[in-house]
């Protein structure tokens, strides 16, 4: 008897295949992570550019409002110098939108689009890829568990036995029908 440990070659081959598969999975996940980071950086860059453009638009809008306020103040000062004249308006008005606020308009008179800050988007993308990776690893670990392999083996054996039994039953029925036809051909009466 020898003290050397004998390892079946099938186990060694399977171990190497699993190791190669895990290495390939790590390489694919690293590439996916790199692409996700690049996408996140691109999203952040676009968000920063959009924020800068929005800030510039807000500055322009603020300058316009400041100019309008100055013009309005100048008109009010001039109106204060002129004696007040009362104007009577005999038209009737119907109030239809009491208490409703008009939405704020952007610099071009268009409603602004809602924007999402870049950090939550990047966080969600990274979290989603991490969750997918973790769930894949848990699924693989569970699928390779001994209990699952034994259950699969048991179910396969049971299915093979059932299919053999079904095949034998069909063969018996086919033989009975064949013998019945042969007897019917022999006994024409």
Description of the structure:
Keywords: Coiled coil. This is ElaB/YqjD/DUF883 family membrane-anchored ribosome-binding protein. Residues 48-82 form a coiled coil. The structure is a single chain. The protein is mostly helical and 189 residues long. Among the domains are: 19-84 and 118-125; 143-189. Helix content is 74%, strand content 0%. It has three helices and no strands. The chain has helices spanning 9-81, 118-143, 146-186. Helix 1 packs antiparallel against helix 2. The chain is elongated. The two termini are 78 Å apart.
Summarize the structure.
The chain has 189 residues and is mainly α. Helix content is 74%, strand content 0%.
Topology of this structure?
Blueprint: H1 9-81, H2 118-143, H3 146-186
Helix pairs in contact: 1-2
Keywords: Coiled coil
Coiled coil: 48-82
Protein name: ElaB/YqjD/DUF883 family membrane-anchored ribosome-binding protein
What is the CA-CA span between the terminal residues? 78 Å
Put simply, the count of helices is 3
Main sheet properties = none
Query: For the residues shown, what is the average pLDDT?
Result: 84
The 3D shape can be described as elongated
Low-confidence stretches: none
- Specify the structural class: mainly alpha
Approximately what portion of the residues adopt beta-strand conformation?
Answer: under 5%
Order of helices and strands: HHH
Helix content: over 70%
Radius of gyration: 41 Å
The total of beta strands comes to: 0
Keywords: Coiled coil
Protein name: ElaB/YqjD/DUF883 family membrane-anchored ribosome-binding protein
Coiled coil: 48-82
